[in-house]
Design goal:
The protein is mainly alpha-helical. It has a 3-stranded mixed beta sheet with strand order 2-1-3. The longest helix has 34 residues. It contains 10 helices and 3 strands; from the N terminus they run E-H-H-E-H-H-H-E-H-H-H-H-H.
Amino acid sequence: MKPGNRSTVTEFILLGLTHDPKLKVFLFLILVAIYILTLVGNITILLIVYYSTQLQTPMYLFLTQLSFLDIILSTVFSPKTLVDLFSEKKTISFYGCLVQLYFLGACTGTESFLLAVMAFDRYVAICNPLLYNVTMTKGPCVCLVVGSYISGFLHSLIHAAAVLWLSFCGPNVIDNFACDYPVLMKLSCIDFSFNELLRFVLVGFVVAIPLFIIFVSYFKIIIAILRIRTTAGRRRAASTCISHFTCVFLFYGSAFYLEVLPNKSSSQQQYKALFLILTEFIPALNPLIYSLRNKEMQQALRKTVPSISHT
């Protein structure tokens, strides 16, 4: 397989979210608010966990990494999306497109493994509470985090390298507000079946393995909760998993439909909406989900904000 010749296409034209001037203003205001909420919410979580002694636990270590990834993912897409809403010519260079693709795959891939690690953490805490402090020590937790990053970023690096082998010499219009793999592969003027196969294998790796861990963990968690005799005990145990399960549902739900929609005769607007949810809305929702339903986080917020303001 020889690398493609990309000399005839050096940039891509993005069609954006909409052509309606009134809708552009509305979307701009919404997306600015969401981006600010993403930055404020996730940075707040990072600061609270850093300054609060009561949150120095594996669960919140993993949560800070989730917040860090959400900041990166949103920052890669939000600023350009906002600028392009009012740009007459929405273009992105080939390598700019490659950067978007790389960080999309790296952040979502790492987040997929982190969600599995967080499910395993909840499994140990609920099913083996006496062994929790022995099992989830600092060393293993750091290894799990580093392993998640290596898996996610390496998976995306292989993706990006495969795109470099494609040849783009014809149409260069992407019907989206950002670069995405399915559309980009279809713009290639050489056979991209190898890239499709590689993408199927890699996506299967970063989705199937974490989902298996999550399903097994929650299956055992549910059994353990049902064995708790008191209603208060069951509610307390379940409450520690609700926030995580909500994030899992939102992340994998949107990611699943993004994989399915390009292969169906569905509206491109539906695909754009789901892509927007994955790259803009979910990074903003994650801190809200964890802060609104987490009493420890709320208590730490009330204690930490005054102490930070006095430093």
